[in-house]
Each structure stands twice: as structure tokens, then as C-alpha cells.
Amino acid sequence: MRILTVCTGNICRSPVAERLLQAGLDQAVPGGFTVTSAGTRALVGEPIQPPSADIVRTFGGNAEGFAARQLTSKILRGVDLVLTMTSGHRGEVLQLDASLLKRTFTIREFARMLDVLDDRAATPGASVAPTHDGGDRLASNAAFWRGLPARAAAVRHLSLPADSSENDIIDPYRRSLDVYRQMEDELAPAIVSILRHARLNAPA
Q: How many structural domains comprise the chain?
């Protein structure tokens, strides 16, 4: 299952999402996910900004060996799910590859939809997501996640924010540590929701 996270410079927000999602998903389904990132106006070759690297390490991820890269249609080819940091980034992804329309979300809206799905699954008598059908564990996991965007989109109307700005993660580039902390406060809950969904639905 291939996931791409996208922001602007690919040195502050999307690397944090990439490295923390990869770390958590490796625990939930070892070998089941590849998470990468790119920027719509990337500072190509640059490492993660130090405050973002600190956030990655704080939550148990690895910030080493990262180099920013420019988002291209080639990078988008074969990606199963795109998680952007803002609605604007989502639009830029779709300009490059309109076929990703139903597989591209802002990370915060995607997380809210997964929360709705998880709440439904926990309700007695509620219909639940399709179960894994046995066989190869990684293939089963990939099939489950490739069907997830459609299931998530079906509950979008139940997860709409009070304000559309709540779909976006603030850009802290060249700003104070307080703005990095705001980024962390906006991004961390979304990552937690995605990882919780992965754990709850990990193939046996």
C-alpha cells in the first residue's frame, strides 16, 4: 500500500507526516505500507527542518536520511492514497493527475472520516468495514486499504468541519517555534486517527 504525503517545500509538514505514518504503520502491519512525500514547490535536496525533525523524534520516528523532492506526475503514478497538508495542495495534485480525484484528501479530512468509520464499527449492530479474506496478509491489507477511500468518502458528510480552514495544516516555514507547535497540534491527531484505524483493521 503506497501512501504519499504532500506539502509545499517538503521540509516541514509532509516529512513529519511521512516519517510518523511510516513508523506507526510498520508497527501495525510490518511490511504493509510504503510512505513517501513530496512538495508542490519543493526545496529539492534539503533535509527536514530541525524543529520538524524534533517532532518526528519526539513521536518515535526517524528523521534521518531525508531529502526534499519536487512533486511530479511520475511520483504520483502508482500511488494508492495521497494525503495533502491543505486543500490547495490537493488541487495541485489533481492538476498533475486528475485520476487521483477519489484517492486524494487533506490529511485532516481523511482522519475525520476514519474516525466516523471507527465510531460506526464500535456501535452495536452497525455495519462494519469489510473483513480481510485471509490468504496473504500483505495482499489482504493492501486490498482493504485500496477500498478505504471509497468507504471514507461515503461518510464525508458526517465529518465536515465547522470551518473549511480546519482541513489545513499551518505552514511553519521560517516562522517561530510556536507555529511549529501549532503545526504539531493540528497534524498529530490526524496521524493518530490514521494509525488507530490501521491497528483496528490489521489482518490477523
A: 1
